[in-house]
Amino acid sequence: MSIPTFRAAFPPLKAPLLRLTLCLCIILHLTCGRKWRSPTETPEVVPTEGLVAWYPFNGNADDESSNGNHAAISGPLLSADRFGHANKAYTFDGVDDHIKLPNNLIRSCLPITIAAWFKTSKNGALIGYQNAAYRNLPNDFVPLLYIDLDGKLRGLFWPGPGGNTPTTLASTSTFMDNQWHFLVVVATALNQYLYCDGKSVASVTGRVDYRSMIYNQIGTGYSSGWVSTPGGWMMFNGVIDDVRIYNRPLTSDEIPALYHEGGFIPPLAKPILSAIGVSGSCIMVKWQHVPEGKLYQLEQSTDKAGPFKSLNSGDDTLFIHNHLTRGQRNWYRLKVKSGSRNSAWSDTVSAVALSFEGWKYNPQNGHYYYLMPGQDWLKSKDSADSLGAQLVTIRDGSESNWLAQNFRISDSDVRCAVWIGLTDEGQEGQWRWISGEAVTFSNWAWGEPNNDGGQGHYTTMDIGNRYGHLGQRNDLWHGGSGNVRGAILERTGIE
Predict the structure, then answer these.
(1) Residue 382 and residue 434: Cα distance in Å, rounded?
(2) Which residue from 38, 314, 447, 492 puts its CA 20 to 30 A from 307's CA?
(3) CB-based contacts of 2, cutoff 8 Å, min separation 6
């Protein structure tokens, strides 16, 4: 193509358009290859400033900070890390396995940050330091980071001046769930902080005193009965990975960056499960809602060791297991799912199908009553049916007072209510008991019933005394409100 032909095909750009085009090209060049990140996303920058030692356990215990603080392995075996990568972490047997760090490594750093990943189902020390090597008996020591008998994560540096009794940093949550967790302990001259899974959980104030504790190790620490832990060497039983030591305090922004390093997504919280026999052939199993949980998988066995079989899968937080053998103990466990994320199995719980365990007897009429937690009115009715019961019928003021006092949530001035068996779902304003009995007693709160926006076909009774409403009724839609705590069930006899 000749130059005149080329110019004809591509006429020159005007100056403003040319400048705009050049700006766009520069922007594209600067951003090319960069991953887009929303403003709320945790930065991917992992802090390296002040990194004294880094043990990623890539097949060995070498320090990859370039400082040459290599550790010595004594017993632990290579294992998979939090991403499932083989030979990228170490498993400790809880007997004598440990990894020896260079002498004075921790003592030489103040301020200091120590970070590590772990998973375990038992108590034990993750990192310790003392004035004698492992197996000897030190007289100055701290199990720097450890899981106590109660499952809580505890730790500290020795506060000074020397001889003071330490006050441990302690988590509120427990961690013996065999799931990966990330811990960080930070010490400055006057303060100590504990982080779990990227969030601050505890802090103490007081001068830090390193004393003569020159020996450091991963997988054990010495104790003289710290909190509930017996004295002596505390051996860790579980997996440890990615230990980092800094000679500065990491910030509250840097710690979440470490937690999410490599795109780590934490598992869902382990659910808390309970079970109670509510009749001679039924057991009620209930659990707390897990944030982000979408699907609950419940399993049952007649033996604690299993095998377990699936009972139910759904979004409810209550299941009634019926048609059981009287006196047979049944065991239950539960996990939570949300997309590709799963929780660990809950602790296994058990119950025996017994006759009316937890039910209250009313000597006025010889009936039995039970407070069943958290479902909407329609599900509560179905659950009552499966138990051979029904939502309660209240026949007079005496029965109403007995129910209000026996199921009162507390003596405090609160507003809370429970479902009862009164409805006008058949015809607006025509209230009836689902038992078929006539409505002979009414105790509506002031301004009620008000049809709750055209959907108030189902009735609650207050069991809290806010505004003096104890025992009074309110009409709501079947889903209720945040004040509704459950439903009162009624039976006329025991099996």
Answers:
(1) 12
(2) 314
(3) none
Antiparallel, parallel or unpaired: β 417-423 and 432-433: antiparallel
Who contacts 362 (Cβ-Cβ below 8 Å, separation ≥6)? 368, 369, 399, 402, 406
Structure tokens at 264: 């780590």
Considering the domain architecture, whether residues 162 and 114 belong to the same structural domain is answered as: yes
Token representation of residue 279 = 């009749």
Q: Is the pLDDT of residue 12 over 60?
A: no
**304, 331, 352: which is the final residue of a domain?**
352
pTM of the model: 0.60
Q: With b meaning 16 or more CB within 10 Å and e meaning fewer, what string describes 226-253?
A: beebeeebbbbbbbbbbbbbbebbbeee
DSSP annotation of 40 reads T
Whichever domain contains 347, its CATH number is 2.60.40.10
CA-CA-CA-CA dihedral for 51, 202, 171, 69, to nearest 10: 20
Backbone angles phi, psi at 397, to 5 degrees: -65, -35
Tokens describing residue 211 = 């004393």
Where does 75-168 show beta strands of DSSP type E?
A: 77-79, 89-93, 98-100, 112-120, 124-130, 141-147, 152-155
pLDDT tens digits, one per residue of 106-152: 888 888 999 999 999 999 999 998 899 999 988 878 767 889 888 88
Total structural domains within the chain = 3
Q: d(Cα 406, Cα 251) in Å, to the nearest integer?
A: 52
Task: Give the tens place of pLDDT for each residue, 254-265.
Answer: 999 999 998 888
444: in domain: yes
- Chain centroid to Cα 332, Å, comes to 19
282 and 135 inside one domain: no
Q: Residue 252: which domain range?
A: 51-263
376 inside domain: yes
Same domain, 256 and 121: yes
Task: Examine the fold and report which residue of 210, 245, 263 is the final residue of a domain before the chain moves on.
Answer: 263
